[in-house]
């Protein structure tokens, strides 16, 4: 293979004929494969010295330190050193949360429609992808955009991946190329993407405007007058939700939680915007926070009605104390559990482990650790996605992981359903063989209220407990909880069960504590592992996700020119590298024995401080971004964040604006945590040192 700039890049013939589509680049080619995330690597050519006849690119461009091809490859799953071309780097869309999205198959599917001449997915650095469709105007006589969209929407639905959430193209994020501005094309008649994007820059910016309201949605939704009644408001809310989702499931009730419908943060923004537009005559102030706090059609309708009529009009909604709600949920999800197996089989020499959430950040490192542990015979990974195994292979390849996946079996499961919605023979096999169940699957969303975690996650806890009670070996259930469950406990927070009042006042923290109490009430052998802040990995080439709160803070600080002197109320940081945390989880889960409940805090036993890392942040911003950042008080930084305009570009540059509520919650001091039991159980925790400047700088470079 080669290019105009590089000529032919020397490569060896693969030894196995079945690997005909893989490249084995010659050691003297200077090829270095640099991690590009998502299981892919970019082909980069490094100069080898003065003999440039093998590397003509350095003759054409003398003095350059390297040549980045922008070509992305995936490594052979079994033979390291063999690489298969996937696509160009500029073909990949990177959303503002760091999620990478390959649009090629999507575009090709849409282009298969006879009325479509070209399709181009847009949205690099944006909160969600959009789509520009170039119709084949020779086949279209007279047609407005709305009727044309109705004709083409089925093929867009077909192209939308069933495994995607944020990367799905929504109907209100589609625009049509005009007859007067056809797509730019190359001599080979393929779409010249960069030129076409430049041609349609004004239309794309309008598509992502913070103030844009989808005209079709608004026309179908309509508007209400100045004084709508409760029934009219409820019908409006229901219609808006139905229009945004395309439809509502049969039997969907006005009291059902909207977050059971795969409603994400992007759709919440659109939902609030659509309702605000329909209610504009009422001048009501309505935002995303109202949707999160009132996640059913009935509760949101009541709030809107009360806002319109004033706080003193209409019956006030009686607020049930949160501790009472938590207790009710524990009672609900411990009911109807099966009797525990009274004649458990003796434990076998080697463990069979069930793992949920294996494709998540912590879960993937837990799986890697399990596969490297000699006395693990088998790992069953339960995932909602049918593509979980493929995603796992890509994740391992991107980190250079050599773990043998032959001992792992991936099962398509739904934890919210009885018996995980598995075929009966499969479920029976698991109950007959499993000795350990590690439950790591949980949505990390600080906006959702407690009740939104019930239908999926608390139901999943109930079914996991039922599994453990039925299992032949009295399977131990290790649950990944969070230190947010003890955020309001007096110092030091103990490694034991705590009252409901201990949880932080947010749905995520409350759901974790409710789950702990459900498991404790079942009588199954349980290990509760309260994890603290998990950072990037200490070893290998994995990354600390750019969309998380700390990476977002650093990226935003560089764009704002301001960085906080402290991280909220705390200066001591008990950050634990995610690979160390995974080893600690496995050590603690395997090391537990007997009945009852073990509670352990998986946090760094030796803390670092933000003040020690602050010079590293400032130097990084100066060197990598050319920006001098001013150190300001935490309150001043949060207030400056609140002043950032919520335009698409500002959200891209300063992603922390999406988490203002979370940063405000950090103003409350966190208790010290007891760690004696976890440290005694885990060799990895005992040997773990604090995050130092060198390790932190490694992560910083990943966010630049």
Q: Strand content of the residues, in percent? A: 15-25%
CATH topology tier name of the domain at 539-704: Rossmann fold
**Adjacency order of strands in the biggest sheet:** 16-15-14-17-18-19-24
Structural class, by secondary structure, is alpha/beta
Major sheet details: 7 strands, parallel
- CATH class (first level) name of the domain at 539-704: Alpha Beta
**Which bin fits the share of residues in helices?**
25-40%
How many β strands by DSSP? 26
CATH superfamily of the domain at 539-704: NAD(P)-binding Rossmann-like Domain
Estimated radius of gyration: 27 Å
* Number of continuous helical runs: 25
Mean pLDDT across all amino acids: 86
Protein name: Putative nrps-like enzyme protein
Keywords: Phosphopantetheine, Phosphoprotein
Pfam families: AMP-binding_C_3, NAD_binding_4, PP-binding
InterPro entries: ACP-like_sf, Adenylate-forming_Reductase, FAR_NAD-bd, NAD(P)-bd_dom_sf, PP-bd_ACP
Overview of the structural elements:
The protein is of the alpha/beta class and 704 residues long. Among the domains are: 2-91, no CATH class; 93-207, ANL, C-terminal domain (GMP Synthetase, Chain A, domain 3, 2-Layer Sandwich); 215-318, Orthogonal Bundle (Non-ribosomal Peptide Synthetase Peptidyl Carrier Protein, Chain A); 539-704, NAD(P)-binding Rossmann-like Domain (Rossmann fold), CATH 3.40.50. The chain is 37% helix and 16% strand. The strands form 9 sheets. A 7-stranded parallel β-sheet has the order 16-15-14-17-18-19-24, with helices on both faces. A 4-stranded antiparallel β-sheet has the order 5-6-7-8. A 3-stranded mixed β-sheet has the order 11-12-13, with helices on both faces. The longest helix is centred in the middle third of the chain and has 17 residues, at 454-470. The chain is globular and about 75 Å long. The model is unreliable at 312-317 (pLDDT under 50).
């Amino acid at each position: 293979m080669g290019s105009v700039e590089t000529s032919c890049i020397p490569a060896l013939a693969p030894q196995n004929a079945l690997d005909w589509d893989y490249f084995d680049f010659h050691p003297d080619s200077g090829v270095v494969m640099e991690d590009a995330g998502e299981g892919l690597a970019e082909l980069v050519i490094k100069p080898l010295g003065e003999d440039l006849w093998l590397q003509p690119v350095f003759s054409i461009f003398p003095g350059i330190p390297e040549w980045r091809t922008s070509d992305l490859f995936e490594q052979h799953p079994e033979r390291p050193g063999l690489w298969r071309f996937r696509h160009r780097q500029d073909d990949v869309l990177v959303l503002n949360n760091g999620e990478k999205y390959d649009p090629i198959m999507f575009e090709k599917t849409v282009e298969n429609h006879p009325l479509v001449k070209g399709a181009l997915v847009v949205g690099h650095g944006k909160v969600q992808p959009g789509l520009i469709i170039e119709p084949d105007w020779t086949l279209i006589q007279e047609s407005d955009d709305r009727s044309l969209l109705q004709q083409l929407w089925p093929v867009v639905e077909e192209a939308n991946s069933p495994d995607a959430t944020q990367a799905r193209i929504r109907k209100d994020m589609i625009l049509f190329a005009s007859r007067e501005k056809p797509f730019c094309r190359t001599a080979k008649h393929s779409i010249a993407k960069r030129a076409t994007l430049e041609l349609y820059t004004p239309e794309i910016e309008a598509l992502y405007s913070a103030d844009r309201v989808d005209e079709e949605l608004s026309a179908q939704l309509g508007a209400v007058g100045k004084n709508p009644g409760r029934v009219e408001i409820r019908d409006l809310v229901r219609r808006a939700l139905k229009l945004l989702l395309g439809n509502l499931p049969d039997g969907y009730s006005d009291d059902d939680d909207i977050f059971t419908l795969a409603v994400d943060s992007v759709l919440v923004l659109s939902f609030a915007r659509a309702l605000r537009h329909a209610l504009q005559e009422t001048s009501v102030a309505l935002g995303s926070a109202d949707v999160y706090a009132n996640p059913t059609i009935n509760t949101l309708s009541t709030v809107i009605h009360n806002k319109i009529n004033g706080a003193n009009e209409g019956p006030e909604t009686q607020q049930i104390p949160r501790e009472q709600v938590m207790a009710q949920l524990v009672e609900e999800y411990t009911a109807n559990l099966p009797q525990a197996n009274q004649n458990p089989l003796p434990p076998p020499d080697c463990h069979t482990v069930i793992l949920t959430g294996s494709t998540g950040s912590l879960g993937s490192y837990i799986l890697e650790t399990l596969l490297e542990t000699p006395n693990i015979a088998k790992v069953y990974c339960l995932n909602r996605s049918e593509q979980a195994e493929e995603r796992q292979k890509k994740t391992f390849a991107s980190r250079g992981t050599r773990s043998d996946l032959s001992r792992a079996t991936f099962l398509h499961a739904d934890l919210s359903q009885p018996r995980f919605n598995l075929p009966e023979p499969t479920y029976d096999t698991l109950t007959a063989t499993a000795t350990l169940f590690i439950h790591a699957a949980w949505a990390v969303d600080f906006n959702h209220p407690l009740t939104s975690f019930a239908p999926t996650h608390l139901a999943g806890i109930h079914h996991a407990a039922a599994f453990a009670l039925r299992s032949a070996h009295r399977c131990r259930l290790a649950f990944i909880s969070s230190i947010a469950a003890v955020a309001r406990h007096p110092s030091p927070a103990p490694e034991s069960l705590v009252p409901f009042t201990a949880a932080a006042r947010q749905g995520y923290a409350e759901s974790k504590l409710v789950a702990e109490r459900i498991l404790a009430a079942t009588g199954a052998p349980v290990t509760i592992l309260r994890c603290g802040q998990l950072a990037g990995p200490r070893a290998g080439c994995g990354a600390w996700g750019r969309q998380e709160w700390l990476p977002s803070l650093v990226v935003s600080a560089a764009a704002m020119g301001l960085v906080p002197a402290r991280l909220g109320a705390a200066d001591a940081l008990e950050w634990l590298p995610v690979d160390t945390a995974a080893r600690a989880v496995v050590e603690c889960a395997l090391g537990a024995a007997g009945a009852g409940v073990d509670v352990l805090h998986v946090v760094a036993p030796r803390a670092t401080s933000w003040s020690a890392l602050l010079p590293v942040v400032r130097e990084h911003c100066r060197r990598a971004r050319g920006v001098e950042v001013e150190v300001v008080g935490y309150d001043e930084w949060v207030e400056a964040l609140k002043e950032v305009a919520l335009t698409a570009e500002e959200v891209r540059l300063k992603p922390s604006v999406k988490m203002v509520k979370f940063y405000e919650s950090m103003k409350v001091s966190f208790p010290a945590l007891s760690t004696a039991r976890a440290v005694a159980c885990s060799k990895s925790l005992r040997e773990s040192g604090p995050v130092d400047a060198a390790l932190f700088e490694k992560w910083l470079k990943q966010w630049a």
